[in-house]
Write a sequence for this structure.
């Protein structure tokens, strides 16, 4: 009975992780690694967007500071600054959507990691059992 529960649990874990029953631990581990590699590209992209937003906000602040000192507003500069802000916000919105999808994917990666852990535990048990069987067969017989 315990064997059936264990098999059901393993199959359920594989189904949740979208891992076929004949997929090896190495394949799952490589899949996890590929998913995690993408994190660096998102970090770089978000850094670029943060820098663009910061520059645009600084430029807008300079224009507003100039008007508080009595200088006239240069409509061309204001339009350019607002255009940069609009573009940067559009990029940020797209990046946020992609990061949200990536985070959802990472939930599956965590489940895949559990599958690999279960495979390692099962292999460790098989090795231990094989070692015990070999140990029993290697003992001298008492005749």
């Amino acid at each position: 009975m315990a064997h059936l529960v264990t098999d059901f649990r393993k199959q359920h874990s594989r189904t949740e992780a979208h891992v076929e029953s004949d997929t090896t631990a190495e394949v799952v581990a490589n899949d996890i690694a590929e998913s995690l590699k993408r994190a660096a590209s998102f970090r770089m992209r978000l850094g670029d967007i943060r820098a663009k937003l910061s520059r645009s906000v600084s430029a807008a602040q300079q224009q507003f500071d100039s008007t508080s000192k009595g200088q006239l507003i240069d409509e061309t500069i204001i339009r350019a600054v607002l255009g940069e802000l609009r573009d940067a916000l559009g990029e940020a919105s797209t990046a946020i959507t992609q990061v949200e999808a990536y985070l959802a994917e990472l939930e599956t990666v965590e489940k895949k990691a559990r599958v690999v852990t279960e495979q390692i535990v099962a292999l460790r048990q098989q090795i231990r059992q094989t070692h015990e069987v070999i140990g029993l067969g290697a003992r001298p017989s008492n005749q």
Summary: The two ends are 38 Å apart (CA to CA). The chain has three helices and no strands. The mean pLDDT is 82. The longest helix spans residues 75-138.
